[in-house]
């Protein structure tokens, strides 16, 4: 019985730490969205004439691979964004790689 409770407690702790990490990742993703290029992604992407990232992701019209490709290489009027993203304090503090930073902002937009 004691071993079962210990195992259950361990599983619960792992689950809670995973949830905390996911919450932290979403917070960093929000910081990226709010701060990239000094004015945030929303300066362009919250305008009705430009792609609405959150809506496109939620509708399944913008997958992570395409999102990542655009951030890394730019597209149409969208400049390359990785240098601006990697310069953001919370990204540096978290020690994120480019792919981890992309995952964070994608998860934020997906929520």
Write down the domain tally: 1
Low-confidence stretches: 12-19
Could you tell me the radius of gyration in angstroms?
A: 17 Å
Helical content class: over 70%
Structural class: mainly alpha
Give a short account of the largest sheet: none
Distance between the termini: 39 Å
Which quaternary structure do these chains form? single chain
What's the overall average pLDDT, rounded? 86
The rough form would be described as globular
- The number of strands is 0
Order of helices and strands: HHHHHHH
| Helical run tally | 7
Strand content: under 5%
Protein described:
Residues 12-19 have low confidence and may be disordered. It contains 7 helices and no strands. The termini are far apart. With 111 residues, the protein is mainly alpha-helical. The longest helix has 34 residues, at 2-35.
Q: Any chance you could write out the topology, listing elements then pairs?
A:
Blueprint: H1 2-35, H2 42-45, H3 53-58, H4 64-73, H5 82-86, H6 89-94, H7 98-110
Helix pairs in contact: 1-7, 4-7
């Amino acid at each position: 019985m004691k071993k079962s409770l210990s195992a259950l407690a361990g599983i619960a702790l792992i689950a809670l730490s995973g949830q905390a990490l996911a919450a932290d990742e979403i917070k960093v993703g929000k910081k990226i969205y709010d701060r990239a290029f000094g004015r945030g992604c929303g300066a362009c992407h919250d305008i009705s004439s430009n792609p609405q990232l959150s809506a496109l992701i939620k509708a399944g019209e913008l997958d992570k691979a395409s999102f990542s490709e655009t951030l890394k290489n730019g597209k149409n009027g969208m400049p390359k964004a990785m240098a601006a993203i990697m310069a953001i304090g919370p990204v540096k503090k978290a020690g994120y790689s480019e792919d981890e930073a992309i995952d964070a902002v994608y998860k934020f937009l997906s929520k």
